[in-house]
Structure formats: structure tokens, C-alpha cells
Amino acid sequence: MGAVDDVMSYLLELMSGQAPGTRVPSERELAQRLGIARTTVRTSVQHLVAAGLLTPRHGSGMFVAAPKAITYLDEPAGGPADDTGRRPFGYLVLDTREGTAGAELAGAIRVAAGEHTTEFRRLLVHDSAPVAIESAILAQSTIPDTTGAAFFDLLDRGRTISSSTISCELAAGEFSRVLRIPVAQPLLVVERVRRLPPAETPVYVRTCYRADRLMLRQRSATGR
Q: What span, in angstroms and rounded, lies between the C-alpha atoms of 154 and 13?
């Protein structure tokens, strides 16, 4: 791995101080410049892409990536807004799906197993790039008189009532296609239960983030 590490160090030095969107030399250019095999350069580039430091653009090359988005475990993915009213993520409503609650989901949203549920899904966007797919599931009997974007705006004003569970999955199928990432690229999966105002309805929320575009933080118990 010595040659791969050397190429990564060379690229990191080359990228230092460069603005997001700056193009880096192609694999062929780097191989010629450094006198090494293109396969070695490709492996180094793939590591930097996975780390969120380089962004590939089909047909155009590799570019310095934008800084990672930051979100906090105790806050909704879509908010809260800052003093200017700007939220950390924009979003697009994807679809709504019907289902039934298994034992674990039923316990989380405090209904009987087998009860009919509705899943609201949205795509989170940061700096015009897709960064996560989020699902919010609740019992059909508790759905408020609102849907789509209005539902998620309401959810973002709610509060988290459970600890967050964090795991890692590999992107495939719809996640790879919608998030515009290669199959098997890591996803950070955050699961928790939130209260939907004004009735304090429990909602199970599952957010699958692109690991290369996000930084998760936990606030200290003493404040921000």
C-alpha cells in the first residue's frame, strides 16, 4: 500500500487550499507525472472519493469536494433553522407508502403489531447535492390532517424522545441511484423516534446519509 499512500499524500498536498470544484489532474496525467501505474492512481483516488474529499463528475474528471454537511443527532434532519431562517438541508418529497407494523416498529410507535402504517419519504439536499433519504413511519390512525411537505415541516418542529441508533449499510438499488453514488458506497443510518406536534404522536424516523457528504455530531449535555 506504500505507493497508494504516496499518491494520496501527493493529491492531498495538491488539493490543499484549493476551492471546492477545482479540477485535479486525471488518472493518466498523475500516472505520467509520478511514473506509476494507473491502477495505483485509481485506487488512491477511490479512497479520497470514499472519504468525501474528491467528487467525480462523469465525463469531466475529479474535483475538490465541498465541505461535508454537519447535522446533530438530537435535531431533526431538516432543521432547525438558523437566525436567518436557513435550514441545514433542503428537501424534496419522494413518495408515501403503506404497510403494517412489525413487533419492533409497533413498540417504537406504541401501537399494536399488525396495525396499518404510512411511511412518508423525502430526499435531503445540501448544496444542490442529494445527501440522504429519510423515512418517517406512523400509524395510519394517528396521521395528522396534513401530508407531503407540510408533514415534514411539522415533523421538523417535533422533538426526539429516544436515543439514536447509528449503523452502517452499503448503498444499493434505489439508494445508489437517487443519491448518485456507486453501489456498495457506505451509508450512515440513523434511527430514532420523534414526537409529531401538536398531538405528540410518536413517529419512527430512519435517515440514510451519504457517509462521504456528512458529519454527525453529538451535543454535550451542558449545552451547545
A: 45
β-partners of residue 17 are: none
Domains of the chain: 2-64 (1.10.10.10), 69-217 (3.40.1410.10)
pLDDT (tens digit per residue) in 158-192: 888 887 899 999 999 999 999 988 888 899 999 99
Residues 6+ apart with CB under 8 A from 9: none
Extended strands (E) in the chain: 54-57, 61-64, 69-72, 90-100, 116-126, 129-139, 159-160, 165-170, 186-196, 201-210, 214-217
With H, G, I as helix, E, B as strand and everything else as coil, classify residue 40. Answer: helix
Q: State the number of CA atoms in the 13 A half-sphere of 140 facing the CB.
A: 12
